[in-house]
Amino acid sequence: MNDRLPARRLFLLPLSLLCFWLLAPGIQDAGRPAEEPLWWDLKVELKTEGEYRTQEEETVYSGDFQLTVLWTGTMERDSEDYRLFHGRSEITRWNAREIASSPASAETLTSRDFRDVPDFNMEYILKKEGQLHFAFFVNGFYAPRNESAEKDFIPLPSTEETQQNFSEANYRPYVVTGSNRVCLEERDIYDRACHKEFAWTWKRQQWLFKEKRTTLFTARHQARVHISVTPHYK
User: Fold this and answer.
1) Domain range spanning residue 40?
2) Does residue 14 lie within any of the structural domains?
3) How many domains does the chain have?
4) HSE-up of 60 (CA within 13 Å, CB side)?
5) Long-range residue pairs from 170-174, CB within 8 A, at least 24 positions apart, any chain
6) Is 21 within the bounds of a domain?
7) Is 15 among the domain residues?
8) What share of the chain is helix, strand, coil (3-state, %, to 5)?
9) Neighbours of 73 (CB within 10 A)
10) How far apart are CA 193 and CA 206, in angstroms?
11) Tens digit of pLDDT for each residue in 127-183?
12) Looking at the domain assignment, is residue 18 inside a domain?
């Protein structure tokens, strides 16, 4: 009998520790502290670089662009979901260039000739299966910007959650590397500032039929996104 007592004591010790963890306040849900944040600061920085190329008769159009967008907002708890408040969206960098080359001449356009500057659109943040999914996109543009008879749509970065499907340039099937699923674990935003980066490459090559001939239209861009979520308790 005495030989079994030490083993019994060793068995009871873990049970007592388990009871302490189960009964201690605020420990049952390790993902959230006892005091929940009143609101969160949100920051989204998106950087993209891209290029495109097409041809019309003897003229070849090639373009490239660089864009940086900074979006800020706030978020509050709304029962079992969250309420998003839009703050400010600012384009901190926009460079664009297009060259129209033909046997007779070459013409170059710059950012000032792109009348429609891309615009960032934060649609919503969706809570789904313990994660917060960000839905946003940047408005694309039509190219060539020169006086060409035919123009094609150039999509710009869009997240997987965004329902932005153009009949001529559906975005998601052309993500060739990385992933445009931008999401955070919900539990990570409760105890400290949360930072996460995402990156992907989008590319589309398509043969277009124009005036009884075909031409290859190519467009691609790389996107990098940095998300910051900071909780506030008062």
Assistant:
1) 35-232
2) no
3) 1
4) 7
5) 171/137, 171/202, 174/202, 174/203, 174/204
6) no
7) no
8) 15, 55, 30
9) 17
10) 43
11) 999 999 999 999 999 888 887 777 888 999 999 998 755 445 578 899 999 999 999
12) no
